[in-house]
Amino acid sequence: MASTQTGVLCAGLSCVDMMLLNADTPVTMEAITAFDGNRQVAGGSCCNSSRVLAALKIRAVAVTLVGDDVQATLIRSQLEEGGVDTQYIRTESSINTSLAVLPVYTNGGRGCFVDLGANKVATPEKLLGRDFALLDRANCHIFHFGYPHLMKGIQGDNLAEMFAAARRHSMLVSLDVNGANSPDFSILQSALSSCFFFHANLEEAATITGGTAIAEDKATREEVIKLGEYFLAANAGIVSISLGRHGAYLATNKDPEVLKRTTDGRVKEAGGAMFRPAFAAAGPVNATAAGDSFVAGGLAYASRMIYADSSIGPSELLDHALLTAMYQVDSSQNIPKFDELRNNLTRPRLDSRFAALETV
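Request: output the structure for the sequence above.
Response:
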């Protein structure tokens, strides 16, 4: 029977991203460095993922904590303009909305300086209400949360309890760890067993596992696979590690019972693993929100499959994630509707040092 719940509840960190466009790379920390114009957009996990989902024409509900200020007004107005349901965005008048300054370098990379603002005082109760009542009112079939390392009140047991509540409301749970800055695994460990989908980039995965930083251009397949196994051992259902221009890696839990429990039986391929190349952008690249868009694309596919009461294919999920990320970073293109996205999965891909299209 098809689900009566629809769409994705996107919770977590929010901010206003002030992007410094076409910035030169600083020669030293104190050097005067030029940029060419700026743009202010609603950013962070909640805003980026919900906006991309709405662009794909997947129902998206935003849940985050903001201040009572002009930045909060910008967040609400931009998300509403993009088709996101903002009625559950919460206001904490005693603190400011978060602001991030992002120099977008001419080489395609970016920096990040952030005042976390309201995210520093966010808790599950402030976001979702007493007894997680908002989970029932929102009526979504996926709960996505992003950036727990930057939200001290939603870590460890608090994060695990929030995810367990989402599971009790028949929601699949997704977690993105952008901003991971600590090897303290207790931030995530008890929550991972509720996750059907877990995403990190290579640097974040290495940081969490306590290893040294690994560059995308130097990492080996074995190192990437080992990082994935670390999170699968904590009983996540699906783990994906994005690899920049080299694409992404995805693996499913080897234990069929863990995979069945975390995905409600919608993912059948226990112990699967694959590297997939990135899709080629047609225009200039701006990497801002690439990770959030990657996750949103995968969740858009999963949402469609749940609504149709169909199985979720790991390779299809990964391809939709990679293609959505390409549209996000390509400054010459807009993110299309989901049905159009599906028709573009044969687009050209970049060469990858990890693999061609293959399962490992």
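The chain has a mean pLDDT of 95.
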